[in-house]
Amino acid sequence: MATGRTHRPATRSRGIPEATVARLPLYLRALTALSERSVPTVSSEELAAAAGVNSAKLRKDFSYLGSYGTRGVGYDVEYLVYQISRELGLTQDWPVVIVGIGNLGAALANYGGFASRGFRVAALIDADPAMAGKPVAGIPVQHSDDLEKIIQDNGVSIGVIATPAGAAQAVCDRLVAAGVTSILNFAPTVLSVPDGVDVRKVDLSIELQILAFHEQRKAGEEAASSDGGVPAAAARSDSADQGPDGDMPAVMPA
Amino acid sequence: MATGRTHRPATRSRGIPEATVARLPLYLRALTALSERSVPTVSSEELAAAAGVNSAKLRKDFSYLGSYGTRGVGYDVEYLVYQISRELGLTQDWPVVIVGIGNLGAALANYGGFASRGFRVAALIDADPAMAGKPVAGIPVQHSDDLEKIIQDNGVSIGVIATPAGAAQAVCDRLVAAGVTSILNFAPTVLSVPDGVDVRKVDLSIELQILAFHEQRKAGEEAASSDGGVPAAAARSDSADQGPDGDMPAVMPA
DNA sequence: CCATCTTTGTGCACGCGTTCACAAAGACAT
DNA sequence: ATGTCTTTGTGAACGCGTGCACAAAGATGG
């Protein structure tokens, strides 16, 4: 969960709930895996387990898309893959630019998960003139002077910011001015954008800090209980953690 | 289930809402910036603007930690930095291991946001023997054969998984068996962990897919008058074939 | 010491998301 | 056709998070 929206004027009367949208990619991944194994149909129970969610939640999520299941049987895997892909807009090609080709930018450029899901890295952009022309992931880095031209020539509407924090807002402003309307921000800064532009933030250090909080709490409880002995995995069911996706409690196999 | 049933709102209520915990790092960052500019105090309104949240929400969040503000004045920046750091557990040192030193793992190792917040990269681990000994971010990569020993010798309780999806669950199992109780997972897989282990997931491709959904909706609304909404590019020839990003079957024999 | 002004802390209401539980719908066997 | 069995789709209840609005608390000035 990291949507840095500015204001929400409730433009979703007939729309799909945001929480559901955030889970659709999860279902899609599980379904793709089933598809690759040529599994024809899947029940909500099975698919929910694979995606790590509650089956009732999954069924309700799908109900927002329409009635794509067959009672007594389950869901047709291929059909559902198509429907979710279409709903997410993955049946079309999304050219993406990555700005800031440092370690993280390079990692993103090399990340295979993009191309396989309708995203195409249209350009890599960096402010360092020494980087210009140097190929990263097979794509030559271009200088940020040409940012506007690159955006417009490629019809880019999604931009990824992987610059240092200090440069992020300026880059963001230029991207938006050039026509980008969706931004994935890896820089540890709050970006301000005009209405109509979506920003999602991914912050590695924040995720770690949240883990540290729970870790500290676990350590404190353990010391306080003075139980000692076994780490008490099954004894106490606290763990009010839960990320945005909610992970399943599962029994350790071995 | 797995909800904190141990709520005891006495003198020290330990039940901080998850949503609040997730925002504390955000406040901490804004406060740190103020601290570096030697700003002595800040009002909830100012701080909320800097963190990109509602001021009432911020005040309520802080109220869970205690009454650290002064009415008519605001919050003491230094004091608040300390209190939040303590609450998040950042006043202690957290050794972290990163498993999977590919592009992403290397980027994480180089990421400065860790060290500055109490996190210390204790070791880099990779399964490739050719990587062993090679320094990344000044730290020599160690082979995964030594994973258990590394965890135990360094007292590591937080692990970062940046391996391909296919290796993630196995790595996760080994980490947990060795004593890790918090995992930050970058691999596109649902991890099964025993009770008491926290998992947070960061998935780059999911974030992009969510953006694509909104982007499509924006485009559809805009062109709703002329065209029929969906861009009719439904018949993709190579849409659902698996990409090389190594998605593994997330389906397990439940 | 009192009045006024600023800002916090929070009671309350509302809306979203989650979960339960079950009727409806279809497959399948006889 | 009819009954049984499985699984979906969803109405309803519940709990959490958010934001409003205001009283309490303290600073500040006369």
Automatic annotation (TrEMBL), chains A, B:
Keywords assigned by UniProt, alphabetized: Cytoplasm, DNA-binding, NAD, Repressor, Transcription, Transcription regulation
**Where does the record place the region Disordered?**
220-254
Annotation: DNA-binding region: 26-65
Q: Which SMART domains match?
A: CoA_binding
What residues does NAD(+) bind to? 100-105
Limits of the CoA-binding domain:
89-190
Top-level taxon of the source organism: Bacteria
Compartments (UniProt record) = Cytoplasm
Q: Where is this protein chiefly located?
A: cytoplasm
Q: How does this polypeptide assemble, per the annotation?
A: Homodimer.
Protein role: Modulates transcription in response to changes in cellular NADH/NAD(+) redox state.
Protein family per UniProt: Belongs to the transcriptional regulatory Rex family.
Q: Which NCBIfam families match?
A: PRK05472.1-3, PRK05472.2-1, PRK05472.2-2, PRK05472.2-3, PRK05472.2-4, PRK05472.2-5
Supply the PANTHER family for this chain.
Answer: REDOX-SENSING TRANSCRIPTIONAL REPRESSOR REX (PTHR35786), REDOX-SENSING TRANSCRIPTIONAL REPRESSOR REX 1 (PTHR35786:SF1)
What's the protein here called? Redox-sensing transcriptional repressor Rex
Source organism per entry reads: Streptomyces indiaensis
Gene behind the chain: rex
